[in-house]
Amino acid sequence: MFPQAPWHNPPVDNTLSPQHELDQVLAAEQERRDSRLPADYKLVLQRAIKLETLARFDAALQACDEALQLIEEQGLPNCGEAIVRRGWIQYRQGRKEEALAAYAEAEHQFSKMGLPVLPSISLYRGSIFTDSGRYAEAFAEFADYERLCHEQGLPVHPVLANNRGGLLLLLGRYKDALEEFGRSEHQYIEQGLPVFPGLADNRGLVYGKLGMYEEAMAAYDESERMFRERGLPQSWELNFNRAMTMYEVGHTAEAIQQACKAIYICGEQGVTAPDFLMETLRDWLAPKPDQLVKEQKASQPVAIEPVRDNEKKYDAFICYRRSSSLAISMLLKTHLDLGGKSVFRDQDDLHKGRFQADIMQAIRLTRHLVVLMSPGFFARCITDENDILRQELAAALHYGTHIIPVMMEGFSWPAPTELPEDIRAICEINAMSYSAEFFSAFMDKLLRWMSE
Asked: What is the arithmetic mean of pLDDT over 393-400?
């Protein structure tokens, strides 16, 4: 969750709760109706903003559509702001592809009218790229936001430092992340803006990773207090972050309670609970969590030509589509390297002229095949018998390489009968969900699955 960007924030009385601000907008709209004045799309858009702040996303989207309709009916030239707002709400609902499409449409509208593009589009798009594990693109978008603000004479919103800190947190650069969070807080105060409650939540995550449990819990409590005092809706992310920190120190019962609360909040706000959240809770609720690792190993098909472990050379081989998962494969390799694992990734370890031979030999000599299954991952496997990923999967199944399927956002399994016979058995293997937003917890689970 991020605060509103500066371009659509009118001066407000910070003593008012979001509900009171919404009531003021509704009263202004009623006053226009009583005076028989035409509806003002700017007021309708403000209503959308206040509804989104209160996590009433469906109603907020309806208000955006209403604003766009008014713009069209009244022959007004610019609908870009309403489209950007709609994209942000879709993002908060977890509808990232629709949000990206909305931002692209808004940029087109601004360009068509000869107007400068709103800097906040880059800020919002960077947030989506962060959640999707596209970290280099996220940093670039944040840099574009800062550049556009300077070019247009606009103040840089403090949320930029918060977002950069979140990226550094995901990359394990905890000291740098804390510095960015501190910079963001200072900027909020300096600009006379209320400090974003999520800053304390982010600090809690860092403290948890540094083993500072008491400090982490205090930060989460501070964040929760700030949400409550500001009259803001509860944050499912805060509750799940606190749950993971609790679980890491062995407070399993409390962690389960917090995760359940996070799921409840998602349902209450009309947000689709992330697959990783649901999967994590199922893992924690299992009578014997270690049994899940054994079950994953037991789901592996019987090898045709097994290779003894003392012949293995690599701990992991990363199987992925370059068009969709290149950046994530690089990130994964980096973290596995830091964890002391020997990792084969095609762009790092292949020799010229021996591509296919090297691939097959590497898989034969690898303990674990980590398969990053992005949307449409199997499409070419089905239509092209020479598809390299099909050959990688077939080799792993043949030699008995332990396969760990990782379901990326938007991936769905094909029917087993749709897959070629030489890779069909992968459908029987227990898979895990990927999470960029909770990447550290994802890595912990991946390493547990690689430990047996």
From this structure: 94
- pLDDT grade for 356, boundaries at 50, 70 and 90: confident
pLDDT in tens, 153-193: 999 999 999 999 999 998 889 999 999 999 999 999 999 99
- DSSP assignment letter at 290: H
- CATH architecture of the domain with residue range 300-429: 3-Layer(aba) Sandwich (3.40)
Q: Report angle CA 348, 349, 352 to the nearest 5 degrees.
A: 105
Strand ranges (E), 277-431 = 314-319, 343-344, 366-373, 402-407
Asked if pLDDT for residue 289 goes beyond 80, the answer is no
What is the band of 350 on the pLDDT scale with cuts at 50, 70, 90?
low
SS3 content of the chain, % helix, strand, coil (to 5): 65, 5, 30
Domain chopping of the chain, boundaries: 1-157, 300-429
Q: Is 149 in contact with 155 (CB distance < 8 Å)?
A: yes
Per residue in 99-108, pLDDT (tens digit) is: 999 999 999 9
Residues whose CB falls within 8 Å of the CB of residue 83, separated by 6 or more in sequence, listed in order: 64, 68, 102, 103, 105, 106, 109
Give the CATH number of domain 1-157; options: 1.10.418.70, 2.60.120.200, 3.90.380.10, 1.25.40.10: 1.25.40.10
Cβ(432)–Cβ(445) under 8 Å? yes
Q: Which long-range contacts does 199-205 make (Cβ < 8 Å, 24+ apart)?
A: 199/162, 199/223, 200/226, 201/235, 201/237, 201/238, 201/241, 202/162, 202/165, 202/166, 202/169, 202/177, 203/178, 204/241, 204/242, 204/245, 205/169, 205/241, 205/245
pLDDT at 290: 76
pTM: 0.78
How are strands ordered across the β-sheet holding 402-407? Answer: 343-344, 314-319, 366-373, 402-407, 432-433
58/66 Cα distance (integer angstroms): 12
> Does residue 301 surpass a pLDDT of 90?
yes
Give me the torsion for CA of 268, 270, 274, 279, rounded to 10°: 40
Q: Which pair of structure tokens corresponds to residue 350? A: 């292949």
